[in-house]
Amino acid sequence: MTGSQKTTGPENSLWAVTVATLRKDIRLEWRSKDALNSMLFFSLLVVVIFVFSFDPLAEESRHIVGGLVWVAFLFAAVVALNQTWARELRNQVLDAYRVSPAPANALFLAKALGNFIFVSVLEALMTPLFVIFYNLRVLGPAWQLIPIAGLGTWALVVNGTFFAAMSLRTRSREIMLPLLLFPISIPAVLGMVAGTTAVLTGDNPAHFYIVLLLTYDVVFTTACLALFETILHAE
Amino acid sequence: MVSAFTWLSLDEDVKLKPVNRQREFRIGVVPIPGSQLVGILPLIVTETTATPITVSNVIKQFGRFAALRGVTAEFDAGRFHAILGDNGAGKTTLLRALAGLAHPTSGEISIFGKSPNAACRDLGYMAHPSLLYDEMSGMENLRYFAGLYGIAGDGRCAEVIRAVGLDPELTRGVGQYSQGMRQRMSLARAILQDPKVLLLDEPFSNVDVHSAREMVGLLKGMRDAGKTVFVVTHQALLLDGVADEFVWMQAGQIVDRTATAARASSREELQ
After folding, report:
1. Which class for B175: exposed (0-12), middle (13-18), buried (19 or more C-beta within 10 A)?
2. Distance of alpha carbon B127 from its chain centroid, rounded?
3. Using CA atoms, how far apart are residues A18 and A8, in angstroms rounded to an integer?
4. With an 8 Å Cβ cutoff, are A90 and B127 in contact?
5. Quick one: which of A61, A55, A113, A58 has its CA closest to A84?
6. How far is Cα B42 from Cα B46, in angstroms, rounded to an integer?
7. What are the structural domain ranges in chain B?
8. A107: nearest CA partner in chain B
9. Among A52-61, A169-178, A225-234, B177-186, which is the least confidently predicted range?
10. 10 Å Cβ neighbour count for B220?
11. Which sign does the torsion angle of CA A225, A207, A148, A61 carry?
12. Which residue of B has its CA nearest to A92?
């Protein structure tokens, strides 16, 4: 028995509830800044540590930074993803959503969009630091970094939001999330890293990786939307 | 002669569908002795209270532990049901099953002829935790939850906040409220969509006697307005004279249903 029989009207339609939940999440994050502060601290740590571990001015750094950037964002995103659902568990607020007639997918979409915004903010803040510290100059078409970043970030957050919800009721959910998320994100991470490196070095075209990321996003977004209601109402 | 009566029931509403206070048109059919004919008594219009909530042989297992062990009960609409019992008796599990939050391992629950999930608009649920975001004010919380039920505007939110004796203008986060205020705000969230059935889990816990009595008065008013109220509580005497029945649970089963808290309390003492 799931909420599939629940009735929704125009006022609590998928879009209306998604927007309301997204606004609520942004408001809560703005007040607590839990996720953003943790992500920023973690990413800064990665930037600083790797600056000391190899010569950032060397030509080889251009081949490494693509991976470095995404490793920093991937691990930082996990922090945000755990926070997303943690605030729904406090005071069992999630139960209030479960007993309401609001569509389950609205909650998932709002959480995924919220995480996308938080990780994008992190990327916007950290990218100038990466450029400065690693002396980056883009040799390929720079505009391709935008779809790679957008699609790659969505790939991380859509799966991350789903698996974070799945591991909600497990005892060690902080450990469970990376265990579930990282293996399934390998195709997307490969696409992000290889695509970013291709643009930075200008050696290869990045079109293939953009299409790969787009396909990955479509497939996993559809799968997550199809399965989320079961996850939400699982005990 | 009474046993010779046969009642034919022609309901105004859909037949056999449990609805609250349905109107029945009854025809008394009396066999005439010594013949194959029957006499028909004049049409009688009555108003009866049908059973809106039925729990049929519900078993709920968590692993090997059975929290509910074949609970079967019918609860009338428009009445105040107090659910009592020791810790681990299955009270909260029964309430969560009625709310659609705990799916029975076997058995069925029907609320106005629908599954709890399908009847979610008719259910107001208040849990032991507040089910509220600590960082947001009461009004902000209710505004969000109102959106989930498609209730537009702040009018209804302000109305229910006032109904539970709080100020809608309070700007501090719910996390900074006293326990009593949080319980009231939690009740306000539960009644936000004006549900037909209220499912309240220990609403008076950690609340001072004065506030608890005020909450009881509020719930009594809701019952009088036709709502069906379920309250899981350890404070049975608080509901004496208010609750219509006391449902006593033990080891995952309903073991007694009494009209007064005194009987239930004496039974509790004997246990």
Report:
1. middle
2. 13
3. 13
4. no
5. A113
6. 13
7. 2-48, 76-100+116-270
8. B148
9. A52-61
10. 16
11. positive
12. B131
What count of CB pairs under 8 Å joins A to B? 98
- CB nearest to B115's CB, from A1, A95, A100: A1
What does DSSP say about strands B22-31 and B44-48: parallel, antiparallel, or unpaired? antiparallel
Of the candidates B253, B264, B191, B263, the one whose C-alpha atom is nearest the C-alpha of residue B228 is B191
Contact B26, B46 (CB under 8 A): yes
Domain B76-100+116-270 has CATH 3.40.50.300: yes
pLDDT at B93 over 70: yes
Distance CA A107, CA A97 (A): 9
Whole-model pTM: value is: 0.83
Residue by residue, DSSP assigns A138-183 as --S-GGGHHHHHHHHHHHHHHHHHHHHHHTTTSTTHHHHHHHHHHH
ipTM of this complex: 0.86
Contact across the interface for B127 and A21, Cβ inside 8 Å: no
Nearest to A99 among B101, B129, B134 (CB): B101
d(CA A45, CA B165): 50
Quote the tokens at residue B199.
């499912």
- Amino acid A60 reads E
Q: A133: part of which helix (H) or strand (E)? A: helix A104-133
Token digits of residue B80: 């105040």
User: Which residues of chain A from 101 to 140 reach within 8 Å of chain B, CB to CB?
Assistant: 101-102
Q: How far apart are the first and last CA of chain A?
A: 12
| Mean pLDDT confidence for B29-58 | 66
Asked if B188 and B144 touch (Cβ cutoff 8 Å), the reply is: no
Task: List all residues of chain A from 12 to 51 with a beta carbon under 8 Å from chain B.
Answer: 12, 16-17, 20-21, 24, 27-28, 31-32
Asked if residues A73 and A123 have their Cβ atoms less than 8 Å apart, the reply is yes
